[in-house]
From TrEMBL:
<keyword id="KW-0472">Membrane</keyword>
<comment type="similarity">
    <text>Belongs to the OmpP1/FadL family.</text>
</comment>
<dbReference type="GO" id="GO:0015483">
    <property type="term" value="F:long-chain fatty acid transporting porin activity"/>
</dbReference>
<keyword id="KW-0998">Cell outer membrane</keyword>
<protein>
    <submittedName>
        <fullName>Outer membrane transporter, OMPP1/FadL/TodX family</fullName>
    </submittedName>
</protein>
<keyword id="KW-0812">Transmembrane</keyword>
<keyword id="KW-1134">Transmembrane beta strand</keyword>
<dbReference type="InterPro" id="IPR005017">
    <property type="entry name" value="OMPP1/FadL/TodX"/>
</dbReference>
<dbReference type="GO" id="GO:0009279">
    <property type="term" value="C:cell outer membrane"/>
</dbReference>
<keyword id="KW-0732">Signal</keyword>
<feature type="signal peptide">
    <location>
        <begin position="1"/>
        <end position="20"/>
    </location>
</feature>
Length: 380
């Protein structure tokens, strides 16, 4: 059973940080509930994307617009008797770091060809705290439940779009998690299905811009509602031979419900700019991961993992120009005494994306990225 749990750590490192929907930073795994005894884990991950685009008609390029980002996580698990386990996790559920640097006059899109993303930048920051409880029945089935709090804030600067700027308030809101799991320790088999509810944020947004219709400067507070979407995650693993394990996950996220539409930015003339949402997605996203793990001796385990997310071919926003991906990752775990250290690396081929509508679309293609992760765990 201890090796099966090690494979879950390998999967977590090689799949993270996540990039589903372009802004997801955590896959919300519940695997820590199945660690043995009392356990604490600290995680770090880094993803360095290479993302750029160009206009179909003018050929103007965006330059590198997606800086690398890092994510941290902390998790603690403890048993409360033979049948009950609890866990507390801290992570970064969603995030964005966009920067169109330099003087490139890259167009915002065909619906607004005179506007540019020159000097545009956006940041979305979040912190999630999740409390989980697992109750195991004698039949090896378990029920999982918990609550999740997410604190989120964001800023946007678009100098080439009438000097538009947005600063949101910092809001904390709550959701819940429910799930069911089944285990067969003799063959290191486990299946866990969990549902995470959406978390809706009602921000106060400070919007400012030069109104092209009235030639006045707008500087006002507005209401902005955005939700971290609901999700359904299936995690599985089973032994297929001595010291060999297959594992993976299937995750659905309701990204079509995710939308950042500030009142003045998307509102019609003469008070608003009448532009498309800053970020929106037309389709939900299903992410697949499948891996093979191998235990070499009492100290070393390793795994290879592939990931896939369908390319939809629909339009995305310039602040999140990704559409599916394919990935491959390698990871290794070293265990000595009560300490477990897992490190991994992942290569991601980012799906080509189209931004805006009309014949003069802008495209992001041939992009990729490399992610690395490290997790250190300790058994008490």
């Amino acid at each position: 059973m201890k090796y099966a749990v090690g494979a879950a750590a390998l999967a977590a490192v090689t799949t993270g940080p996540a990039i589903a929907g372009g802004v997801e930073r955590s896959n919300q795994s519940v695997s820590i509930l199945f660690e043995q005894g009392t356990y604490v884990e600290l995680g770090f991950s880094r993803f360095d994307p290479d993302v750029s685009g160009s206009s179909n008609s003018s050929g103007l390029g965006s330059g590198e617009m997606a800086p690398g980002f890092s994510s941290y996580s902390l998790a603690y698990k403890q048993d409360l008797g033979e049948n009950i386990a609890v866990a507390l996790m801290v992570d970064e559920p969603v995030g964005a770091d966009v920067s169109y640097s330099g003087t490139n006059n890259y167009p915002l899109g065909s619906t607004s060809p005179t506007l540019t993303l020159d000097g545009a930048n956006a940041d979305v920051n979040s912190t999630g705290v999740t409390a989980l409880l697992k109750y195991e029945f004698p039949s090896h089935f378990s029920l999982i439940g918990g609550v999740r709090a997410i604190k989120t804030s964001g800023t946007v600067r678009l100098p080439g779009v009438f000097n538009y700027a947005l600063d949101s308030s910092t809001e904390t809101n709550f959701g819940y998690i429910v799930g069911v799991a089944w285990e067969k320790p003799e063959i290191a088999a486990r299946v866990a299905l969990t549902y995470s509810s959406s978390v809706t944020h009602d921000f106060e947004a400070h919007e400012s811009f030069n109104n092209p219709y009235t030639t006045s400067v707008v500087d006002d507070m507005t209401d902005l509602e955005t939700e971290v979407p609901q999700s359904l995650t299936l995690e599985f693993q089973t032994g297929i031979a001595a010291d060999t394990l297959i594992f993976g996950s299937v995750r659905w996220v309701d990204w079509s419900a995710f939308n950042i539409s500030p009142e003045y930015y998307t509102g019609g003339a003469p008070n608003g700019l009448g532009l498309d949402p800053l970020v929106s997605y037309e389709h939900d996203v299903i992410t697949y991961n499948l891996g093979l793990g191998r235990k070499f001796n009492e100290n070393w385990s390793a795994a290879i993992l592939v990931g896939y997310e369908k390319h939809e071919g629909t339009y995305t926003g310039n602040l999140g120009p990704t559409d599916g991906f394919r990935s491959i990752g390698l990871a290794a775990t070293y265990t000595t005494g009560k300490v477990k250290v897992t490190g991994g690396i992942r290569y991601v081929e980012i799906g080509d994306a189209k931004t805006e509508f009309g014949p003069d679309t802008t495209r992001f293609k041939g992009n990729d990225g490399v992610g690395v992760g490290l997790r250190v765990g300790y058994y008490f």
